[in-house]
Every structure is written in structure tokens, then in C-alpha cells.
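Ticket #4471: structure output looks truncated?

Reporter: J.K.
Steps to reproduce: submitted the chain below (593 residues) through the standard prediction queue, then opened the result file.
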Amino acid sequence: MIKELSDLGKTRRAGKPDNEWGHDALKEEQIAIEIVITEDGSFQKYEMFEKKLTIAEAITAKKGKARLLLDKAEEVLCYGGEKSKKKHELFLEKLSRYQELPELIPVMAFYKQNKVNGIETALEKFMSTFPDEKNRKSNIGFRIESEGTRIHEKPEVLRKVIELYEIAQNVLLSNSQKSCSVCGKNDYPVEDIPHGMIKRIPDGQSSGCALVSYNESAFESYDLKGNNNSSICTNCAKTYVEGLNWLLSSGNELVNQNKKGKGKKTFRYTNRKNFGSDTAMVFWTRENKKLNEIDYLEAPNPADVTRLIESVTSGAKRDSRYLEADQFYSCTLSGSAARIAVRDWIETSLIDFRKSIAEWFKDIAIVEYDWDLKKLQTRYAALYNLARSCQKKNTSDGKYDKNDTSLARVASLLWNAALKNTLPPLWILTKVLERARLDGVTAERAALIKLILNRHNKGGDFMITEKIQEGDRPVAYVCGQIFAKLESIQYAALGDRNAGIRERYFTYVMTLPAAALGRLFDLNSKHFRKLKNEKPGLAVTLDKELQYLVKDIDINKLPATFSLEEKGQFAIGYYHQRQAQFESVKPKETKEE
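Returned output as attached by the reporter:
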């Protein structure tokens, strides 16, 4: 995984101009404030603007270090009292290493020769210019009043940064010939230094998290200290950090128009999907191709899905030639204090990737009655909606429970199942059936149950299709159909009720089918007598339909309990029967009826 991330970072570098990310010594950092000074170091004013990226010295970690000419107010102005003095001293120490550069003469005067009009005036003005504490935390750079380029961006300064960096690297390289475990070379040294911080990790620290970190002796071996245990050279360490940070942040800011024509800005990631509040999945290809299939998983369009399935099924040679050379990668990440937890890693060819996506849609296809078109339609649920169908709801307001961490776990596993054609674990079936008992069998829950049962069945005797099935069916599936029919008879006889047999008996039948169905048939006889007196024609029709289902099983030999898989079959039988019954309603009847 780290090798592929490092290769991505190197590819990103190669695609940028030479003065940007072209060297390990340099890195893009954010800046939002400029200190404008004169040639003699006198403070003139502050310039504040929207955060933008600037090329500057790269440092692997802030603790115990300062960046040349670009840093926070604590380092640059000694803002923050006693706590900031050590940071400010580190900043001045860094400047002293470059003080022979003519470009730094005004800055050195700002701090030493012209202190009263320089640093002291700047610190005093800082308080009044930036009353908001949030703005005081932005990176600050220096600019000469008569010039348009910031001092830290000048080519002479950047070349000096690179020169000193390479001198230090050569010293380290001469003392250690250890080969990098990622690139296999010894062109760069392996150091016990932080590799760099990964930002925008869900549940991670705002300052960033480490993917590789050794801070306890228990994590070390063979007399190696700290990050020497990982044996990753400085170049690969920087490039994998750059690659992962790009994946987590790349995207576009979009403006959504509301009904009043006003826009609300939202950010749409191009290489990232969020699963719940604590997990993110990033993906990319070796050649950085756009993957429409990823969008299908998030918002499936039946026409697009059909074309994908037909394309994969026909094995079009043109598509194979287009995809053969490229690889697809995906990793699922969560924050864990200052570290990153890698929950999943996927590596596959684009051909297999497309085949897996096509199989995914075939496995989750389920019919649902369209009340506008008045017919059954094949439905493909979004992956995240399938995962959300397992999520708990608050009893107080009926909204999804944000603290239910199972959402992210389920979504991650379904993502793996979609991209690698793997088996979702059976505990997900337990979760979705639990929600089905409480909130009903929705199209998403039926699709998820179908997916899990069919993939675990591996082409066995009974494979669930997208709509109601005839012929040989398991007892549990038929019991689900019977339960749906008993429910419709109760509604025909009594009308809408706050708690019908689904609310009262669904869990009972799924748990103890023999006992529950016997009781339900007794109850149904009362409903049938009432219906026969009021609507004799409808009573005869519904009774025939019920008897047609009952003939396929022996009521007297029903199992005492259902297994987990049988409970899933029961839920699917119930769902299929319900959707088929919707299609038989008269056009004038409403959805509720």
C-alpha cells in the first residue's frame, strides 16, 4: 500500500512545474497573512487574504522545529507569552542559518537592528488587526513593500534550502547504507524522523495523523529506534504522505442552488468517499483514470448499470484493451488519536474491478413497486443506503443515531464486497434483520439480504431472484409470503391500524414460526369471517391466494425455529409478496390502501 501511495506522490510531483514539489526539501503550505516590511526592516502593514498554497521549506513535524520565513504567529512574532518563546527561538535559529543570503537582510533587520519599528511594532499591531483568534492561527510570511514575491518564495532562497537539505542528506547517507523497504534503493537515507502528517482523516487530530509511527520501545526490534523500524527512505516517506494527502483533499467546491436561487457551497471529493463520521475511503488508479463505476455505487442509474452489466457480460474487446494495463487501488482509513487505522486495502486490475461492480449490481437488484408508473421496477440501491439500512434510529425523534459506529463498518465491508466480489459477513445479516423487525423490510434491506444470502449460498439449490419466485422454494420463504398475505387480509377486513400483525407478530413468526403461524391462522379466521360478510368477492379472492401459498408447505410440520439464513429467506419472501400485491391493486387505490 505504501509503495503505491509513494508512486502516486512521485507521479503527482512529475506533473507539476519544477519549482513546485520538485524536491524533498520543498513542500506546498498554506498562507493567509503577509507581514509587509521595508528594506531596512520597518513594519508597514499586514495583508490578509483567503488561504492559498505557497512553496516553502518542508518540515516533517512541527514539534521542536520551525519553518524558514513561513510559520504561525507564535514562531514569527513570539505571540502567546512564555509558551511561545521556545518556538520563537527556534524560528530565529533557523533564520540565522540563512543570514548570509542578501534576500534575508530586511528580515534580520526586522528582528535585530530595527526592533522597535520592526518586531515590536508588528506584535502590537497584530492584536488590533486580528481580533479574531481563529485568524491569528494562519501561517504568516514576509514581503518587501516594493516587491510582489514573498521572500520565502524567491528562487535564491529556495535553492539555498535545497542545498542545505542535500548536504544533510549526504551526511546521513554516508553513515547508513540501509536500503529502503519501499523502493529497494539506498539513494536516500532511512531516518528516525516523522514521515509527515496526514490531514483530513475522520476522527483524527486537526493537525494531522501519522500513518507510520513508533513512539514506544514495545514497537521496536533488532535494536532499531523509532521510524528506523519501518526502513522507509526520506524520499518515499515524503511522497507517500503527499500522495495520501492529495487523495484525502482533492476535489471541487460546488454551489447548490436552493428554491430561492441562493447558493450554498459544498465540497465534492474526486478520490474520496466518507463512510459515517469516522471512516473515509480513498481510491485511485495507476494512470489516474476517471472511474464512472464509482459514481454508480453512490447514485446508480438503471440505464448506466444495464450498459455496464451488458458490457462486462459480452466481454467487449475494446473495453478490455482500454483497461488491461491499469490497476485500481483503494484504502479505507479512520483516525485513532494521532495515528491512522487502515481498515482495508484493495488492489485489483480495472478489468476485474468492472466485473466485480457488474456482479454487485446483479446481486443487489430487487424489484420495487413504482406508484407513479403503476408497475414493478428493478431497483439498484446506493451502497451507502444499503449500509444505512442497518443503522440504529433514535427512539426520541426517529432520526439515525450518529453514534452508531456500525454504519462505517458495514459500509467498508460492502465496499470491499462490491470491488472484490467477496462475501459480506453474516453479522451484517443479523443487523439488517434486526432493523427489519423494528422498521419494516424496505427495498434496501431486501437487496442487502438478497446479496448476503446468495453470495454465501454460492450457487446452491435456492438462489434469490429480484422478484417473487415460483416452483420449489424454502419453507421460510413461503412462510414470509403467507405472512404478507395474512397481513393483506387483516387490512381488507379491519382497515388501517396503528399496530397490525406486522408490528405485533413479525418478530414472533421469524423466531418461532410453528407457534406464531398457528396463532395467526386462528386470528385470520376471524378476519376472514368479517371480510366475507362485508366484501364476499374480495374474501373469496384473498382466500384462494392464501390457499395457493399454503399448499406448498405442511403447516403441521413447520420448524420450531428458523436459522439466521432462514430468517433472511422469510424476510425476502415477505418483501416479494408485498411488492407483487401492490401491482395487483386497482388504479384508484392509494399507496396506503
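Triage note (M.O.): checked the attachment and the full C-alpha cell line is present. The chain has 20 helices and eleven strands.
Status: closed, working as intended.
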